[in-house]
Amino acid sequence: MRRRRRWRRASASSGRAVRGGGSGASGPPSDGAGRESVAAPAGVMGTGRMEAFSDGVIAVAITLLVLDLRVPDADGARSLADALGALWPNYLAYVISFLAIGIIWINHHTLMRRLAGADRSVLALNLVLLMCIAVLPFTTSLMATYLDVPGGRLAAVVYATAFLVTSAVFLALEAHVLLRRPHLLRAPLPAGERRAVLRRGALAPPAYLLAGLLGLATPYLTLAVCVLMGLFYLAGPRRGG
């Protein structure tokens, strides 16, 4: 009987320790991605599913770009070197678009890490952004196919317009969070830093508008502007600004 009583007391004490999280102090909860979990403000939703869906769409879009890099036919009419050289528009368009989508993913990842939650407007804007990203493999293939043939100017305008709309939607998403819904942020962001983020994002739409207009003269100017924009954003913001 005494053994049973001691066993019951030990079991009850162990159960209380488990329910209470143990006797040791526990650290802050994690969201599974190495970030300290922060409860979403009332009336908003978590960002987990939105982030997972966004990563999936972006991964598919950036993978589809490579499908336009086809192996040349082994017909013997020309050497492999000549056949590969003839595909240079495909290589160039692939690199530019891969770089652009990769930069979008970096900026999107940065924005998502700042969010503690999302409202319906964030979800809607993010969905439109993903729609724009998903069409980039098509516009890339269009640009590569028509670069050196009649129709190249129109292809350049379509290509630049796709980047213009994508950058404008992303800017709208950032502005909605940083200006209209700052309570969605995991931590307050200084006003100066918010302005710097938006100023940097605001450079893209007019630059791609210029790229489209230059494409009416020659598609190569469109590609040149897109390359410069990719390098600019890949370099990241200046330290302290």
TrEMBL record:
Catalytic reaction equation(s): K(+)(in) = K(+)(out)
Record Pfam families: TMEM175
Membrane topology: Multi-pass membrane protein
InterPro entries according to UniProt: TMEM175-like
Places the protein is found: Membrane
GO MF entry, a single one: potassium channel activity
Transmembrane segments: 52-71, 91-111, 123-144, 156-179, 208-235
Family: Belongs to the TMEM175 family.
Protein's UniProt name: DUF1211 domain-containing protein
Organism placement in taxonomy: Bacteria, Bacillati, Actinomycetota, Actinomycetes, Mycobacteriales
